[in-house]
Amino acid sequence: MMDSHKQLFLLSLFLILNLSVLLIIGDIRVVQGEAPTTKMFVFGDSYADTGNIKKGISNSWKDPYGITFPGKPAGRFSDGRVLTDYIARYLKVRSPVPYRLRKLMPQHLKYGMNFAVGGTGVFDTLTPGPNMTTQIDLLAQLIKANVYTASDLSNSVALLSVAGNDYSHYLATNGSTQGLASFVASVVNQTATDLVRIKELGVKKIVVGGLQPLGCLPQVTAATSFERCNDTSNTLVLVHNNLLNQAVARLNQQTKDRSSFLVLNLYDSFMSVLNHPSTHNIQSKLRPCCVGVSSEYSCGSVDQNKVKKYLVCDDPKSAFFWDLVHPTQAGWHAVYNKLRTMNALQHIHH
């Protein structure tokens, strides 16, 4: 009888020791970086694009874009990093490879992929680029081709930056004031449909940016010599964001974990930085750093003789806006820091 107890004891001890060894080996594997990498999939517009827009279409591939990072134009609509880069930093992954460059950088596919294209929207806009539905189609095709597996997607985050271009397109094509309310509703409804579709593809956490204060963009504040934001434009933004928050709350109620979808509060984070610029070492809050020498030119413009037709401020690090629409790297960094202090990012992690 004693022998069988002894055997059981030794067998248990053997199993415990082996299990401990396995756990230790498992821990070593994690330390060595073999744990599954969080993948980030990015959809949307120029606030998130890191190089998908074609070179002939946009000034973002021309000097002086990219002067702060990476030191030359790389397709980002800024002097340096954009929102995508900072959310990737928060997730401790490399900024995902632009879809257009995926075959040139296959070693970076493990970090996810960026489908965002400057100028695009939830619906078609004046920019000849894939709208949100088409961008999501591209991810679906990669999943079908086994570039990304179910296990890859189970450890992934999606970032969406959309809708600003939908509204500028609506206004540019003479959309009526009376029709604006129903257009806002259609933009938010389509965004919600897109969020659900990304979730159905297997992405675990989906983060959608609320609209930034469009009335504070230099292209709008130019009318007041960059002195003040336009309240009418910002009221439209608040209507959009209110509807988006409601839609996302409903989607979360319909999912098991109740926290699959998250709205990134870009409105409050932008406004906080713009209202307290010196806190973030910003000296020029509404005046853009890079502008055309006259209204017919813009940042990055050159004439037929390749003569520069733009001016750049002395210190991009002290300006919030880079051009008429986009923040500088310093601006995005300030917004990112504000999002962190607002605890807006802590729910991104699984």
How does this structure look, described?
One of its GO terms (molecular function) is hydrolase activity, acting on ester bonds. Pfam families: Lipase_GDSL. Belongs to the 'GDSL' lipolytic enzyme family. Residues 1-33 form the signal peptide. The chain has helices at residues 2-31, 83-91, 132-144, 150-153, 164-172, 180-200, 218-221, 231-253, 266-275, 329-341; strands spanning 39-44, 97-98, 112-114, 156-161, 205-209, 261-264, 290-292, 310-312. The protein has 350 residues and is of the alpha/beta class. It has one domain: SGNH hydrolase (Rossmann fold, 3-Layer(aba) Sandwich). It is globular and about 50 Å long. The chain starts with a helix and ends in a 9-residue tail after the last helix.
Question: How would you state the average pLDDT, rounded?
Answer: 90
Count of extended strands: 8
Main pleated-sheet profile: 6 strands, parallel
Rg calculated over all Cα atoms: 24 Å
N- to C-terminal distance:
51 Å
CATH C-level class: Alpha Beta
Quickly give the CATH architecture.
3-Layer(aba) Sandwich
Q: Which structural category fits the helices and strands? A: alpha/beta
Query: How would you sum up the global shape?
Result: globular
